Every structure is written in structure tokens, then in C-alpha cells.
Amino acid sequence: MKTTSNKTINLRVSTATKRLIDRAADELHESRSSFMLDASVARAESVLADRTRFTLSEQQMRRFEAALEAPLPNPEALSRLLKRRAPWSK
Asked: What is residue 85's three-state secondary structure?
């Protein structure tokens, strides 16, 4: 996210936290500000990813509802998929 910067955010942190952030920024050859901004933006995007609001026109909404109501092209495949154990639960 590269835009013209004109606002300031101030943080108070412990000496140990500042050293940790500085070490990580140095490893990536970035400034502390750049490192912290990138990390904060990534976290903010992650938090908001599931909370995004989508707006549809009336026509788009009708098409969306029709897709939800349409019969499944292959219900057996969906049934098999839902019966499978998730890879991360093995």
C-alpha cells in the first residue's frame, strides 16, 4: 500500500519490543516505519477480509438468488465431498 503519507501514528512500546521490531526490519532492509506499516496493513486486511460488505444491483441480486436456488449439476459429487474428512483434521 504505497500512498503519499501525511498522517502520524504514535505508539508506546517496551524497549524489548522496539528492539525486536528493529531487528526484524533490519533483516528485511526496511525502515522501522515501513516494517510496522506493512505488518499493520496486512493484519487489518486479514481482520476485515471476512467482514467485507458486497453491494449488488437488482439484476445481480436476481442472478445470485437464481444461482442459489438452481439444482446442483452433480449432487452425488457434493455428497461425496461433504463426507470426506478434511485434510487438516487427519
From this structure: coil
- The tens place of each residue's pLDDT in the chain, 90 residues long, gives 556 678 999 999 999 999 999 999 999 999 999 999 999 999 999 988 878 777 899 999 999 999 999 999 999 999 999 999 888 887
Kindly state the helix (H) or strand (E) to which residue 77 belongs, with its residue range.
Answer: helix 75-83
pTM of the prediction? 0.54
Domain ranges in the chain are 15-85
Instruction: Please tell me the distance from the alpha carbon of residue 35 to that of residue 41, in angstroms, as a whole number.
Output: 10
